[in-house]
């Protein structure tokens, strides 16, 4: 399999004579695209070189991708990016509900990580602070987060 080239895609269909490279870039919801036909450029390699040059130019114009990672958006209702309230309900028993604060994030390799702290076990305020600390440090080891919290506050985190 050929090595992928960012922003450049090979267009080659069976029973169709048009073959070439498609260049695409999107920033702030606006897409630019252009097709580089092999026949127009003389060969597959020449059209690829033109496509790469075009993408490099567009990339320079467009600048870096701006994401909402670690930025508060309108979807955030807790006030802390990556920390949300979890309400658990067990339908087997009446009034069996529990609450927790959950910290979540995406690692560099694209894996979702999360860690939650129950109100009943840690108390509402401590659970919030523990979840915020876990999110800040992106730490899934509960004991490490609790130790960091205790060191930071000088208080013991109650554990149910």
Observed structural traits:
alpha+beta; three-stranded antiparallel β-sheet
Estimated helix fraction: 25-40%
| Shape summary | elongated
How far apart are the first and last residues' alpha carbons, in Å? 55 Å
Unreliable stretches (pLDDT < 50, length at least 5) are: none
Description:
By secondary structure, the chain is α+β, with helices and mostly antiparallel strands. The protein has 2 domains: 8-62, no CATH class; 83-153, no CATH class. Helix content is 33%, strand content 29%. It has 5 helices and 6 strands; from the N terminus they run βββααβββααα. The chain has helices at 38-41, 44-62, 119-122, 124-137, 142-153; strands at residues 8-12, 19-27, 30-37, 83-89, 97-106, 112-118. The strands form 2 sheets. A 3-stranded antiparallel sheet has the order 1-2-3. Strands 4-5-6 form a 3-stranded antiparallel sheet. A hairpin with a 2-residue loop joins strand 2 (19-27) and strand 3. Helix 4 (124-137) packs across helix 5 (142-153).
Précis, in short:
The chain has 160 residues and is of the alpha+beta class. It has helices spanning 38-41, 44-62, 119-122, 124-137, 142-153; strands at 8-12, 19-27, 30-37, 83-89, 97-106, 112-118. The chain folds into two domains: 8-62, no CATH class; 83-153, no CATH class.
What is the fold's blueprint, element by element?
Elements: E1 8-12, E2 19-27, E3 30-37, H1 38-41, H2 44-62, E4 83-89, E5 97-106, E6 112-118, H3 119-122, H4 124-137, H5 142-153
Antiparallel strand pairs: 1-2, 2-3, 4-5, 5-6
Helix pairs in contact: 4-5
């Amino acid at each position: 399999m050929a090595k992928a080239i960012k922003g450049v895609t090979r267009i080659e269909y069976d029973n169709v004579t048009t073959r070439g490279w498609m260049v695409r870039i999107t920033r702030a919801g606006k897409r630019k695209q252009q097709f580089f036909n092999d026949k127009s450029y003389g060969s597959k390699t020449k059209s690829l070189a033109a496509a790469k040059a075009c993408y490099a130019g567009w990339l320079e114009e467009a600048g870096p991708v701006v994401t909402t990672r670690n930025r508060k958006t309108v979807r955030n209702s807790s006030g802390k990016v990556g920390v949300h309230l979890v309400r658990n309900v067990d339908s087997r028993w009446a009034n069996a509900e529990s609450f927790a604060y959950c910290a979540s994030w995406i690692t560099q390799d694209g894996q979702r990580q999360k860690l939650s702290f129950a109100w009943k076990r840690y108390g509402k305020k401590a659970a919030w602070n523990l979840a915020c600390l876990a999110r800040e440090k992106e730490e899934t080891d509960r004991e490490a987060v609790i130790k960091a919290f205790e060191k930071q506050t000088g208080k013991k985190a109650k554990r149910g």
